[in-house]
Amino acid sequence: MAYRLLAWLIFWEVMGGVRAIGQTQPADSTSLTIRPTDDFTVNGLGDHPAWAKTDWLTISAQKARPKPLTTRAKLLYSTTGLYVLFRCDDETLTATIETDYGPLYNEDVVEIFLWPDTSVPIYFEYELSPLNYELPLLVPNLNNKFMGWKPWQYGPRERVQHATSAWGGDKRSRASVSGWVAEFFIPYRLLSPIVQTPPNRGTRWRGNLYRIDYDRGYATWAWQKTGGSFHEFGRFGTLIFE
Questions:
Q1: The pLDDT of residue 14
Q2: Interatomic CA distance for residues 238 and 207, integer angstroms
Q3: How confident is the model over 173-200, as a mean pLDDT?
Q4: Cα 50 to the chain's mean position, in Å?
Q5: Least confident stretch, 54-68, 83-97, 99-113
Q6: CA angle, residues 192, 239, 39, in degrees to nearest 5
Q7: CB-based burial, 112-129: b 16+ in 10 Å, e otherwise
Q8: What is the pLDDT of residue 67?
Q9: Which of 45, 76, 103, 140 has the greatest number of C-beta atoms within 10 Å?
Q10: What confidence category does residue 190 fall into, taking pLDDT thresholds of 50, 70 and 90?
Q11: What confidence score (pLDDT) does residue 42 get?
């Protein structure tokens, strides 16, 4: 009897692990495991085979809108940088800004915040619009007083690779669509000196993932919920490098 019970328990554990493979990661988890990959070139479609190595993370709506829209993300890392993929259901590309470093947060946008060194209140913010315009910022946040600083060294080795696409319509301002994709690669070089060595297995960073949409009023999504401001870095989740 004891042998049969032990065999049943082992079978139950194995089957539970099998069922977990390939599932979407829970949206309310406070940690996210990032799997390793070889380097590849982003194209804004998110169709590189490397993305099959990891599961989608569903990002929950924080400030709701009349018709719910799904927002999902994936992250991977290599020896040279971090890969990020967003897939956003949408109806209209509310995006008119056609320049980098503009106030992209005033229109449709996806954002990632990275806080690698929690000993200092300084983190990295990256925004990308559906039209593929970017806003990279280093943000010192002292007692809820923060300022974003643009990179002054932003050559080929530091520059973020980024691309976007839309489906169900054209990728243009005010176009009717079914959704859009944002894909980008952040080199660790850009994050110096808050990242002094590349992450490896067991490294932990803090961070958060966001989306803003303006189609029918102001709507937001957040992996880790905030009280209103995306800059509440004390609420960031934990990114665990596998």
A1: 31
A2: 6
A3: 97
A4: 16
A5: 54-68
A6: 65
A7: bbbbbebeebbbbbbbbb
A8: 76
A9: 76
A10: very high
A11: 98
What is the pLDDT, as a whole number, of residue 217? 87
Task: Retrieve residue 147's tokens.
Answer: 């300022």
Bond before 66 cis per omega within 30 degrees:
no
Backbone CA torsion sign across 204, 27, 77, 85? negative
CA distance 156 to 96: 27
3-state secondary structure the chain: CHHHHHHHHHHHHHHHHHHHCCCCECCCCCEEEEEECCCCCCCCCCCCHHHHHCCCEECEEEECCCCCCCEEEEEEECCCEEEEEEEEECCECCCCCCCCCCCHHHCCEEEEEEECCCCCCEEEEEEECCCCCEEEEEEEEECCEECCECCCCCCCCCCCEEEEEEECCCCCCCCECCEEEEEEEEEHHHHCCCCCCCCCCCCEEEEEEEEEECECECEEEECCCCCCCCCCHHHCEEEEEC
* Average per-residue pLDDT for the chain: 89
Q: How confident is the model at residue 66 (pLDDT cuts 50, 70, 90)?
A: low
